[in-house]
Amino acid sequence: MPPANLTLVDHPLVQHKLSLMRARETSTGMFRQLMREVGLLLGYEATRGLPLGETEIETPLERARLPVLAGKKLCLVSILRAGNGLLDGMLELMPSARVGHIGLYRDPATLAAVEYYAKLPEDLPERDVILIDPMLATGNSAVAAIARLRELRARSIKFLCLVAAPEGVAHVGESFPEVLILAAALDRCLNEHGYILPGLGDAGDRLFGTK
Q: Do residues 149 and 129 make contact, with C-beta atoms less than 8 angstroms apart?
């Protein structure tokens, strides 16, 4: 059974596409396409609980009161650089969403997250945020990004990823127990370098062909 702060998206299409992404021989172009497609599918699950209101609409036959999204639109926040691969698919689903970016890199010696860039909407207190990063490994980057969003008083935060490690899920849960994690898979563990096993390698390098 997954931890209380983790929701696993077990839709067959998500699982199939993720398995193709894991394969060493998958090309950069195919990896990028699959990540975009999975981003759209995960975005569908992440928005399942959005509140609805009603508005009056003229159909071809009559006027009717029909459901529409209520309140401010979502803000999608990508952790650079790999988060942008999922972001593309989510924006196909939610083209009117606001978008923010947080740039973090992992110190190779300490595995600590170091912020080098942040550009976020000014009205975060009025918006629900979906924070996006393909991999939740140590959890250091996720915790640093959530802390920044909390400083700016985001109304609510969900964290969305492809693959999570138990260590990362536990770290986020201990630091921010109210933040729900949505993932396509909970893998076995981290190796000595902080990479997820079995994982899929470095998502950024595979997305952009840099290694």
A: yes
Q: Is 77 exposed, middle or buried (0-12, 13-18, 19+ CB in 10 A)?
A: buried
Let me know if 206 is a catalytic residue.
no
Catalytic residue among 22, 150, 155, 202: 202
Digit-coded pLDDT (tens) for 125-163 = 999 999 999 999 999 999 999 999 999 999 999 999 999
Omega prior to 36 cis, within 30 of 0: no
The domains found in the chain, sorted by start residue, are 6-208 (3.40.50.2020)
Across the strands, what pairs with 67? 54
Catalytic annotation, pick one of 106, 128, 148, 188: 106
Predicted pLDDT of residue 198: 97
Active site residue 107: no
E strand map for the chain: 6-8, 52-58, 63-69, 75-80, 98-106, 113-119, 128-132, 135-136, 156-164, 180-186, 189-190, 196-197
Q: For residue range 79-121, what is the model confidence (pLDDT) as tens digits?
A: 998 999 999 999 999 998 999 999 988 787 777 888 899 999 9
**Taking Cα atoms as reference points, which of 160, 138, 24 lies closest to residue 94?**
160
Distance CA 36, CA 202 (A): 16
- Asked if 202 is an active-site residue, the reply is yes
DSSP letter assigned to residue 161: E
Catalytic residue list contains 123: no
Residue 1 pLDDT more than 80?
Answer: no
- For residue 182, the cross-strand partners are 7, 160
